Amino acid sequence: MPELNWQPRPDELEFDAIRASGPGGQNVNKVSNAVHLRFDIRASSLPEAVKARLLNWADQRITSEGVVVIKAQDSRSLERNRADAVARLIELVQAAAHVPKARKATKPTYGSQQRRLEGKSKRSDVKAGRRSKADF
Asked: Which residue intervals are annotated with compositional bias (Basic and acidic residues) in the record (predicted)?
């Protein structure tokens, strides 16, 4: 399956400017530079298969109502934090869109079985040589 080339529509995203935590001096108490991004999975334009995979994921960023909440506060700029939050949302959706390839069960070859048994017997001989011999 090719990579999902998806961009969220602006009406699907809800931004809340909040005060960032951490160091920053007096500025951190005055300016709301951090961003909470809310994205409703059920009401989005995502394909149904990706929606189902996202809703079944055990991710702390996804609420029980099916809303993704991403907090971005790395930058001192509100716009850069918004862009970072959107990029992280797209990354999350890309990860959910990736379906791992199903594993096919295979049998070990005859040679690999023989090598394994040979190694086991050699190891057994080494350990048997370490045992103390009883003096009768």
From this structure: 115-136
Task: Give dist(CA 108, CA 57) in Å, integer.
Answer: 34
Token pair 């971005």 is at which residue? 72
Helix (H) and strand (E) counts for the chain?
A: 4, 3
Q: How far is CA 5 from the centre of its chain?
A: 18
| Distances from the Cα of 89 to the Cα of 60, 69, 101, angstroms | 13, 9, 24
Looking up tokens 């017997």 gives: 121
What confidence tens digit (pLDDT) does each residue in 17-44 have?
888 876 666 766 777 788 999 998 888 8
Report d(CA 61, CA 69) in Å as an integer.
Answer: 5
CA dist 58 and 80 (Å) reads: 28
Q: For all residues of the chain together, what is the average pLDDT?
A: 86
